[in-house]
Amino acid sequence: MAIPEAQLDTWAKQGSVTQSRATYATVRSCLEADDALYAGRSKSIFLQGSYGNDTNIYADSDVDVVIATDSVYYYGINELKPDEQTAFKATLTGGGGYTYDQFKAQVVAQLTKKFGSSVKPGKKAIFVQGDGGRRDADVLPAVEYRRYTRFRTYADSDYYEGITFWTTDGVQIINYPKHHSANATTKHQNTNSWFKPTVRIFKNMRNAMIAKGYLAAGVAPSYFLEGMLYNVPDNLFGSSYETTCVNVINWLAKCNRDNLLCANERYYLLRPNSPVTWRVELFETYLAAVIKFWTDS
After folding, report:
1. Residue 181 pLDDT
2. How far apart are the C-alpha atoms of 194 and 185, rounded to whole Å?
3. Three-class SS of residue 214?
4. At how many degrees (to 10) do helices 241-254 and 195-211 cross?
5. pLDDT at 59
6. What is the torsion angle, in degrees rounded to the nearest 10, for the CA atoms of residue 154, residue 157, residue 162 and residue 168?
7. How many CB atoms lie within 10 A of CB 117?
């Protein structure tokens, strides 16, 4: 048995973007206002998640917005050679005293000034409840993170640029959303535009599996499904959605789990005890469920 091509074609379609674009424009305008306490600091504002990567489906609701400043940055130097680490540490200064906590508090204040009681700080992001034509939004304050791969001097160095933030219980999270987005776009191009519709199919399929009792909610977050599909060889996408899904599922059943990467290519996809990776047992639970769901359909 297999899921009909017509159903897969429906699942492949992108959800509405009109309201999400309007929501992003409204939130961005608020964050860019000249009266913000951080207005004089260098910053970037961008979409991440399904709306940022064009993999949103009709069931997606929240618009994920990042506001990141490079007025303060954090770093990782574990990949540097010992002499490079020494050179890096010798260049460190005390900095300007501006902290992530200050920046986050200023972002909360700015959003509250505009949206009032609709603003609710959460464990990671700041939730802004929708109103009328505006969708719910999650605004993530972050600061620049540099993962150094080479260092002689500041002018003679290489690093991967990411973002970092802290949860309310003190856990630091480091991620690379711009690398994720760029790599997903390249993957989409390399698969003749089959990658992103396939991501949407697997997200919709996941939702159908939950609704029909094949899978518990929370086992297969969209971010990890996108990362999972990013690893599938380019030549297995195409011909038809049914063929693509069969190729993907068969490849996942036989692949070396240890080598799977997140779409940002900065982390392995399946690793324990990390806030940015998928636990292997949850991946295995999902894979068994999707095989059964496909077979039963």
Report:
1. 96
2. 11
3. coil
4. 80
5. 84
6. -50
7. 7
Domain limit, last residue, from 175, 195, 215: 175
Evaluate whether residue 227 is within a structural domain.
yes
Q: Which two tokens stand for residue 92?
A: 């460190």
Mean of the per-residue pLDDT values of the chain: 95
Q: What is the pLDDT of residue 84?
A: 97
Do strands 172-175 and 63-76 pair parallel, antiparallel, or not at all (unpaired)? unpaired
Reference 74, options 183, 181, 174; nearest CA is 174
Tokens of 186: 């390249």
Backbone angles phi, psi at 281, to 5 degrees: -70, -30
220 lies in some domain:
yes
pLDDT for 94 equals: 61
The 3-state DSSP class for residue 43 equals strand
CATH code of residue 131: 3.30.460
Q: Is the pLDDT of residue 95 over 70?
A: no
pLDDT, average across residues 84-88: 95
Give residue-wise pLDDT tens across range 26-41. Answer: 999 999 999 999 999 9
The CA dihedral of 23, 26, 28, 127, to the nearest 10 degrees, is -60
Global pTM value: 0.93
Distance CA 4, CA 157 (A): 52
Residue ending a domain, choose from 160, 175, 190: 175
| Residue 226: domain span | 180-296
Residues 69-87, mean pLDDT to the nearest whole number:
94
- Look up residue 68 and give its two tokens: 């990141």
